[in-house]
Amino acid sequence: MAGLRKRRARRQQALRWVVVTLFAVLFLLPLIAMFEFTTRDGWDTWRVFFNWKALGETYPILWTGMKASFWLVLLSVALTLVLLVPTVVWVRLRLPRLRRVVEFVSLLPLTVPAVVLVVGLAPVYAWVVYFVGGSSVTLFLAYTVLALPFAYRAIDAGLSAIDVRTLSEAARSLGSSWATVMWRVVLPNIRSAVLSAAFLTVALVLGEFTIASLLNRDNIQVAINQLGKSSATMSVAVSLAALVLAFALLFLLSFAGRRRNRERKTS
Amino acid sequence: MTSSGVRLEALRRQFGNVHALDGLDLDMAPGELVALLGPSGCGKTTALRILAGLEDSDSGRIIVGGKDIANVPANKRGMGMVFQAYSLFPHLTAIENVEFGLRLRKQNAAARRKRAQDMLDLVGIGAHASRFPQQLSGGQQQRVALARALAFEPEVLLLDEPLSALDAKVRVQLREEIRRIQLEVGTTTLFVTHDQEEALAIADRVGVMRAGQLEQIGSPEDIYRTPATPFVAEFVGLSNRLAGRVTGDVVEVLDTKLPLVAGASVHDGPATALVRPESVDVTADADGTGRVVAVSFLGPLARVTVALPGDAVVVAQLASARLAEMPPGTAVRVVLRPVPVVVSAA
């Protein structure tokens, strides 16, 4: 009996490794290929890539795109969380009947193709330009809409895992204002959900091309696309860096979640 | 510790077509423990939540310590509350949970920690101060919740079925602890439950609610022995429904004349008397008209169900030592003890 169990465990272990290896190959092979492509004619590409001053001078488009994307990431994440977290919590606490409506609305951007979305966004952005100017950073308004379905799902799942109602009522009875309830009770308990929402937004903003390109704005993907026409190796290097950055973020995120659980178990 | 009296006056609350509270009046003396008892949907939890400020009333007054607090938000009412669901903050340890209310009141760290530890010791869980809620059992979590609710010296303590998620043994233990602690700290306490045993065991007074109103309020003994209405008699404790006939202030049931409870207003004529099982005596008698149909052993006590001629069934409660003389099928004689009973229209 014990032998049978041991054999089965060993078989499962082997299967697990096969799956991990397959996926590793699937994910890593393109990255390795990209890396190989960028170093085919020596390390010049990477040397320029890490020398940010030279990078800015040699590829001004790239520099502009990277800067815009940096701000887009920050602003989109901030706006998404500031809009979504209190709304979703409030709907759960006070307007549970609206939950389906909010869910439907937040999922809408997923069902509309980006190209179609641009048709609607173009006149809106005419006004944005009129009021705040034509900076690429204003794209964060559109990106917040795009991020809604993903961020909503993440936050809603996080809230489902705790009894928000009872926790906030307990906090209220202990003397918390609504702001304190949010900050001291709800947020710490949905921290990993908020981090997931933030990360998904980051990934979405870093990968977005269609809207930026069609609205004639610059972001990192638009820059990579344009660069591809003049310097193929640099455009691939930047793509690779963006991908690695996204993976690193994901890894950090799961690591942060795990460490927190372990802290709780051992204390 | 300061403790305030509570007065609810003509509280009304409607959810759609349902009158959750229909003019509820309730008075609680400082330091008193009042249990609100009633079937689900009778409005007891709504009353507690309105007192806590977690729900608004449509009309009526809520007076605590002489002040009307109907417009005071929940976080300014200074009421400690223990919920039915586990309500400890999962990201904080037991002691941090207890400190939460003190922290909001800007108490300094050392005093706060000491007070929290004292409260955990009071509820008998001082050794687990640094554990997170998910490392505690249900009973332990409710103890911490009680410590948290009492730590900031609330004017009123509100207990919303705090024991109903626990298993039977822990429930009995913890309800006694709650009573001990409540007497020790002297906080006016409103305890909502649907478990009559719980209410009778720990309350100074028990209020039985029905359809948004208090049906009767009195000491546990009053409620049990002299229920004011058939509803109370049936809801609190077991009752046999036996056909009888009222004449003046006496009801005749099974050839025995039983006095009616004081204040009952019933017309002469046929009626149903509600007789407690412990007021029924059964003895084995070959000439008896009853026949034992079932017995259930409850430890020191036992219940014997007896079928009487004409479809009537009566349940008697006896010392379980007497079970041996009356296995199912035994012919028995049923005698009612002449204690006051409640009657309802037949």
TrEMBL record, chain A:
Keywords: Cell inner membrane, Cell membrane, Membrane, Transmembrane, Transmembrane helix, Transport. SUPFAM superfamilies: MetI-like. It is a multi-pass membrane protein. GO terms for biological process: transmembrane transport. The keyword Transport applies. Gene3D superfamilies: MetI-like. It holds the Pfam family BPD_transp_1. Residues 66-253 form the ABC transmembrane type-1 domain. The keyword Cell membrane applies. The chain crosses the membrane at residues 14-35, 68-89, 101-122, 128-152, 192-215, 235-256. It is found in: Cell inner membrane; Cell membrane. GO terms for cellular component: plasma membrane. Signal peptide: none annotated. Belongs to the binding-protein-dependent transport system permease family. PANTHER family: INNER MEMBRANE ABC TRANSPORTER PERMEASE PROTEIN YDCV (PTHR43357:SF4). This is Putative spermidine/putrescine transport system permease protein. It comes from Asanoa ishikariensis.
UniProtKB/TrEMBL annotation, chain B:
Keywords: ATP-binding, Nucleotide-binding, Transport. Residues 6-236 form the ABC transporter domain. It holds the Pfam family ABC_tran. The keyword Iron-sulfur does not apply. InterPro entries: AAA+_ATPase, ABC_SmlMolc_Importer, ABC_transporter-like_ATP-bd, ABC_transporter-like_CS, Mo/tungstate-bd_C_term_dom, P-loop_NTPase, Transp-assoc_OB_typ2. It comes from the Bacteria. One of its GO terms (cellular component) is ATP-binding cassette (ABC) transporter complex. The keyword Cell membrane does not apply. One of its GO terms (molecular function) is ABC-type quaternary ammonium compound transporting activity. Its EC number is 7.6.2.9. This is ABC-type quaternary amine transporter. It comes from Asanoa ishikariensis. The lineage of its organism: Bacteria, Bacillati, Actinomycetota, Actinomycetes, Micromonosporales.
